């Protein structure tokens, strides 16, 4: 395996991204209790549907915009320069989202959403840049594992968000012992609860700040320098720094500037030549990521209902505000530990042996099977004696999402497109995924509501019910299986073989 410095710092970016994106779901119930308490109500306050959608979704919208913008900018200015900008944005906005100014609920939520949008914008840049940098540094034998390891840090980020929330909420819970809501509606949310959610959100800045110095010391990737900036000599020097060995410029097969790329390889993103060579590939990477994220993000919505059904989380009125945060964090951390994290690392260790295509096909197929197995006999699963089996099946869908398309959709776009369009095409694929996440997070929030209007959550219209929502998700996973057929296998091939760059030269750019 080629060893190089900086892989860990690259991976820390995704650790931070996942922490920042997922920590909000741990504290949304608390925000409802603090800012939307209704005197005399039998249930604790909860965020109105539009506010809940904004708080949970605004970072996803920001991420989508950031993926497109920074993906394009990474091909224009270089990977390294743009990377620093995204990191500073993430640090500043993590801190600012915890400060959220204003005296009334509307102002606090508005400023929280404003900073969460720009936080998402910074996170969006990390997707195409991290994947592109890792693919351009790695060798063809271990490249899949390297890129997947960057993405697998998401699992640890989700764990860290849960773990840190457990620590903070238990400390506050022990220090400020208050009765549950049904005993004392006002006293169950102590004034100090306002610090809990702010501390949890602001902690996301710490890992980003710790890696800033190291990220800025990394040189530009040699492939960008040679193939896009067309400076072969400098590329060889920078590659030698990273690999800690001499790489003569001629090894790069990129001579003087005018010969740096064959003339037939200078087509743009919107050209007929791009559509002929890579159109189907781009359709494959965007459609599979879009379909996966609908399923992946909507699954998270069912967690609280499932945990409540099996008694992992008591009814909200039986807990104080701080204790509720603790119970939600504990349940989500357990799911992450048992299914999400192992799934990611199965991919890291097996992707260069089995190949991207087979893992993605297996993942989508198994998700389809488990979704239908949960959906059709849904009433059977709601009986108390079957609850644990339901959670096991539900966990397995998460496992196969991560040992499957959630990892491979991130890896493949960084390998199959030309160097000067690589970051842009990865950004487009990732943004398509975030569009799916937005559809999943909001569409299913409404779809999964009970068909009986009286049983729907406060403020929501009647939906199609959880059973039908799960059937729809099964169909979406089946479509993902079919769209995978458009995605090429890149195992064991150099980036130049995959993208068709340097077709006219006998050597590839493998260092």
From TrEMBL:
The chain crosses the membrane at residues 51-70, 82-101, 107-125, 146-172, 195-214, 359-378, 390-412, 424-448, 468-488. Pfam families: Sugar_tr. GO terms for molecular function: phosphate transmembrane transporter activity; symporter activity. It is found in: Membrane. It is a multi-pass membrane protein. Residues 1-492 form the Major facilitator superfamily (MFS) profile domain. The keyword Transmembrane applies. It catalyses: phosphate(in) + H(+)(in) = phosphate(out) + H(+)(out). GO terms for biological process: phosphate ion transport. GO terms for cellular component: membrane. Keywords: Membrane, Phosphate transport, Symport, Transmembrane, Transmembrane helix, Transport. Belongs to the major facilitator superfamily. Phosphate:H(+) symporter (TC 2.A.1.9) family. PANTHER family: SOLUTE CARRIER FAMILY 22 MEMBER. This is Major facilitator superfamily (MFS) profile domain-containing protein.
């Amino acid at each position: 395996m080629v060893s190089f410095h900086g892989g860990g710092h690259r991976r820390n970016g995704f650790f931070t991204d996942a922490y920042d994106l997922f920590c909000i779901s741990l504290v949304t119930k608390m925000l409802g209790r603090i800012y939307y308490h209704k005197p005399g109500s039998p249930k604790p306050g909860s965020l109105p549907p539009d506010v809940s959608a904004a708080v949970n979704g605004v970072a996803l919208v920001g991420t989508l915009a950031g993926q497109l913008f920074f993906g394009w900018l990474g091909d224009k200015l270089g990977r390294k320069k743009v990377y620093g900008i995204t990191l500073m944005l993430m640090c500043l906005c993590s801190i600012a989202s915890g400060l959220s100014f204003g005296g009334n609920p509307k102002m606090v939520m508005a400023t929280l959403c404003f900073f969460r949008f720009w936080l998402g914008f910074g996170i969006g840049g990390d997707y195409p840049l991290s994947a592109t940098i890792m693919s351009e540094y790695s060798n063809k034998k271990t490249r899949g594992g390297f890129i997947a390891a960057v993405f697998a840090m998401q699992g640890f980020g989700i764990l860290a968000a849960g773990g840190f929330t457990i620590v903070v909420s238990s400390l506050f819970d022990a220090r400020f012992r208050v009765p549950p809501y049904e005993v004392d509606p006002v006293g169950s949310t102590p004034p100090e609860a306002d610090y809990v959610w702010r501390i949890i959100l602001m902690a996301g800045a710490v890992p980003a700040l710790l890696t800033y110095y190291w990220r800025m010391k990394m040189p530009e990737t040699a492939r960008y320098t040679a193939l896009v900036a067309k400076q072969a000599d400098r590329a060889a020097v920078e590659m030698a720094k990273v690999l800690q060995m001499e790489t003569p410029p001629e090894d790069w097969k990129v001579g003087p500037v005018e010969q740096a790329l064959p003339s037939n390889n200078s087509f743009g993103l919107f050209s007929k030549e791009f559509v002929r060579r890579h159109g189907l590939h781009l359709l494959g990477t965007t459609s599979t990521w879009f379909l996966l994220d609908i399923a992946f993000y909507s699954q998270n919505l069912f967690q609280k209902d499932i945990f409540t059904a099996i008694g992992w989380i008591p009814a909200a009125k039986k807990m104080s505000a701080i204790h509720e945060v603790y119970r939600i964090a504990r349940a989500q951390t357990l799911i992450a530990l048992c299914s999400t994290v192992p799934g990611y690392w199965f991919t890291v260790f097996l992707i260069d042996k089995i190949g991207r295509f087979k893992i993605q096909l297996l993942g989508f197929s198994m998700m389809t099977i488990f979704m239908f197995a949960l959906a059709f006999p849904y009433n059977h699963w709601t009986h108390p004696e079957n609850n644990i089996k339901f959670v096991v099946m539900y966990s397995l869908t998460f496992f196969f999402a991560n040992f499957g398309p959630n990892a491979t959709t991130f890896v493949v776009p960084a390998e199959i497109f030309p160097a000067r369009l690589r970051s842009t095409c990865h950004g487009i694929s990732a943004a398509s995924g975030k569009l799916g996440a937005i559809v999943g997070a909001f569409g299913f929030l409404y779809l999964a509501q009970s068909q009986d209007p009286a049983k729907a959550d406060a403020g929501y219209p009647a939906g199609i019910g959880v059973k039908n929502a799960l059937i729809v998700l099964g169909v979406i996973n089946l479509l993902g299986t079919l769209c995978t057929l458009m995605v090429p296998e890149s195992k064991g091939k150099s980036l130049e073989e995959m993208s068709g760059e340097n077709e006219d030269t006998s050597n590839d750019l493998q260092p």
